[in-house]
Amino acid sequence: MRTLVVSDLHLGSRTRTELLLRPEAQEQLLDAVSQCDRLVLLGDLLELRQGPQWEAFDVARPVLAQIGATLPPDSEIVMVPGNHDHRLLRGWFDRRGPRATPLGLATEVDWHADELLGVLIACLGARMVRVSYPGVWLREDVYAIHGHYGDRHTVVPILERLGAGVNSLLLGEEAAQPARAEDYEATLAPMYAWIDTIAQAQPAERGRARGGMQARTWRRLSGSDRSRLRRAAVGAAFSAMIAALNRGGVGPLRPQLSDAHLRQGALRGFGEVLARLQVDARHVISGHTHRAGPLPGDQQPEWLSPTGARMVNTGSWVHEPDLIGEHPWSSPYRPGFCAWLEDGAPPELRCLLDSSPGVMNSL
């Protein structure tokens, strides 16, 4: 079986950074889709956190229809929601209730046609679609999950990490926790719901800024902003804030935001998830961080989890200038990555847009 894994398309983003709105980029993805037996959409397919959900669907609908129409006969789509489209799971979680069977590593998700997830699946128009959460087994030795649970352990002070830290204090989380998917949902899902509620109330004219706030902040604090005095002032205030959060029990957090610290923090956090959930896999595919890897030049030991799994990250399909920097052709944050999986072979990381100079030169 030939499996194509893509993540973080973020269709419907108000920042209009999703590359699949460009015909040449869409063509490259559709060419790969036409050759697979199974397409795995590994989270953040939709951007539901920047505005009302109908806006995202208006943008995403024609792209999703093309994906569904391009799939070969008898092929399958597997969806694994992430944090930016966690809202897709709301109806399912409501029906499950508190006494449902534990989530485990991969639970089949059902849906109703009038629910958000049902509307999305109708947009795809595919004959065979299944949804799994929090992850899915692609093979006996290959597990795939969006990767957002890693935010619970990263030392990088992103919004989800701060919210999860506060929630863990409020819940009185024990030292051994989180140990199950439900534990991660308990600290992360309230943050997702809060962000979703704000997004639904956004007026149409809001949210069209260039890129994300966190990316712009990292750029300033990591040394790429041109004003040294401003960077020093912001950096001092940032370090003081991190120290206060650590004293308050929200941490451990660190103020370092270099590319290396971002990469290492995300990998260690995700590796901690695999260890706590006892994921017994030789290969684990994820997305979420938008940092593809491992790539040539990466330190291979960093991409091995505490459980011994080789971690592969499928990057994203969004253009984020504040992360890509001045050399998009070599940036690990460049868009267009995927994982290709065939029977008996390890996941192969590919950048489908590397063969599209028109797209890459425009970044």
What does this structure look like?
By secondary structure, the chain is of the alpha/beta class. The chain has one domain (3-361). It is 37% helix and 13% strand. It contains eleven helices and ten strands. It has helices spanning 23-33, 53-70, 90-96, 116-124, 159-171, 181-200, 213-221, 228-247, 259-276, 321-324, 357-361, and strands at 3-6, 38-41, 76-79, 106-109, 129-139, 142-145, 283-286, 310-313, 337-341, 348-351. Strands 1, 2, 3, 4, 5, 6, 7, 8, 9 and 10 form a ten-stranded mixed β-sheet that branches. Helix 5 (159-171) packs across helix 6. The protein starts with a strand and ends with a helix.
Q: Key terms for this structure?
A:
363 residues; alpha/beta; 13% strand
Give a topology summary.
Layout: E1 3-6, H1 23-33, E2 38-41, H2 53-70, E3 76-79, H3 90-96, E4 106-109, H4 116-124, E5 129-139, E6 142-145, H5 159-171, H6 181-200, H7 213-221, H8 228-247, H9 259-276, E7 283-286, E8 310-313, H10 321-324, E9 337-341, E10 348-351, H11 357-361
Parallel strand pairs: 1-2, 2-3, 3-5, 6-7, 7-8
Antiparallel strand pairs: 1-9, 4-5, 5-6, 9-10
Helix pairs in contact: 1-2, 5-6
Brief rundown of the structure:
The protein is α/β, with parallel strands linked by helices and 363 residues long. The chain has helices at residues 23-33, 53-70, 90-96, 116-124, 159-171, 181-200, 213-221, 228-247, 259-276, 321-324, 357-361, and strands at residues 3-6, 38-41, 76-79, 106-109, 129-139, 142-145, 283-286, 310-313, 337-341, 348-351. A hairpin with a 2-residue loop joins strand 5 and strand 6.
